[in-house]
Amino acid sequence: MSYAIPAFLPFFLAALFAAIAPVRFRYLLVLVPLVNGILIYLNADQLTPISIQLHTFTLQIMDVGAQVTEQDAKLTLLFAYLFHLACFICLIYALHVKDKVQIVAGLLYAGSAVGAVFAGDFITLFIFWELLAVTSAFLVFARRTKASKAAGIRYLIIQVLSGVLLLIGAISYFQQTGSLEIGYIGLGSMASWLFLIAFGIKAAFPFMHSWLTDAYPEATPAGAVFLSAFTTKVAIYMLARTFPGEDLLVYIGAAMTCFPIFYAVIENDLRKVLAYSLINQLGFMVCGIGIGTALALNGTVAHAFNDVIFKGLLFMTMGAVLHRVGHVNGSNLGGLYKTMPKTTIFCIIGAASISAFPLFSGFVSKSMVMAAMIEAGHEYLWLMLLFASAGVFHHAGIKIPFFAFFAHDSGLRPKEAPTNMLVAMGIAAFMCILVGTYPEFLYQMLPWENSYVPYDLTHTLTQLQLLFFSALAFVWLNKKGLYPPELKSVNLDFEWIYRRAMPAAGLGLARFADNLKTHFVGFAVSAVNALPAKKRGNDANAATLTLRMALGFVVLAVLAFVTQFI
Hints:
Layout: H1 9-20, H2 31-42, E1 50-54, E2 57-62, H3 70-93, H4 100-118, H5 122-141, H6 146-177, H7 190-202, H8 210-215, H9 221-229, H10 231-242, H11 247-266, H12 270-291, H13 294-325, H14 341-354, H15 361-375, H16 379-405, H17 419-437, H18 440-443, H19 457-479, H20 496-529, H21 538-563
Antiparallel strand pairs: 1-2
């Protein structure tokens, strides 16, 4: 038996079914990623390449077989398994949701991610790249608040911009090489830089990251779990395929691991804390891609796999709090463990995993990247990753569970999370412990040959010391009243540029253009009036009217552009 249908198709058909079928049949949708993932796993050696002829281009929508390297094929399959597993967990988590928009958008979003990793050429990738942008935006819009609508519009503009850059890069790459096949590119041409920026936007590179921290906290509880799994991981997959070993990525990744810590520590919205934490974890992956050794790339892939699970688990726990309480502001929570004990336990498991506690999943993957960093001779950057690891424990390992479920008693007594949410969190928690205690489960699927042993004495003791002293620092700072998460505050991030500075500059430009129009039209009218009476008439009046309309349209266009960012 062989698998001979596009891997994304079952998701799209399920989305169609979800759109037209009664809501009560949504339970059947959970089977789609489960069955499809199992079929792909059982037929991994017999997947049939599928292509479509479009004029002079051949779109490779299932790029498997002899035309790809063994490592690329394994990389594709691992991410495909991961996305099927993530969609399965997300659908269980969303079973209580009666909003068809979220279910349909979630299935199309997951299918687009699967389609992107199986794409064999840049045109096919572009199609799924833009589908990722459009479908995921509805998970933000679905919350139906003024803030979510504005955040969704900003998110969509930036995501579509990434796709435009990808398309321009693909056209330029085709002109240079005569090929559109996805493979190693490296930095050496304008097309390669366009690809890097396009991928960098979705991977949340520094100064390109604000869409993530802006939109993810405004999504629905289930939507944020979907969002945490797919967009950024597709970007990591593409960077691993096209830019492995690019030294620039090591420095970009190191910066990504560090700068979000300072924002996360002072952020009051706990889902926004997780958004900053997501950028931090992506930094470790980008570092691994930049190093480019087998150990580093295996560490990147392993950490991407684990991050989808433990970050999804943390987003699920905060989504459960949002579902029951109505907000996730750390300053107004606390004491929820009394009535949400199961959610509390799952949150602690997710926190231990992201903090890389021994016997939890983060421990067996993050250390691979750090070990590769030392082997590559980047000692100073290794110290940055060490600092970032301590910071992760502070803002995600301690802050999230402590201020949500413990800290001071807020007096809130919400019900425990719905059963389907608990089941989804339980599956993710089980995976965190399984991978942490039996890393061979994950290691055997890694694309490159792997002989790494995570549980050696040196690494285990080093990590335990790091965690112990980080916890000690948190206790001391909190006891002295120096730890800031209880503050009600608003962070000023890079998004201030396009949410405040650019609109203000645009409105100023519009006022300047309007004044210019007034003076220019006044001058034109004066010039026409100065003509001899016999040369005036309909032509002069028509010219003046045309001039007024042209300048008016310019002003309106500027205003229309500016208001899209407000």
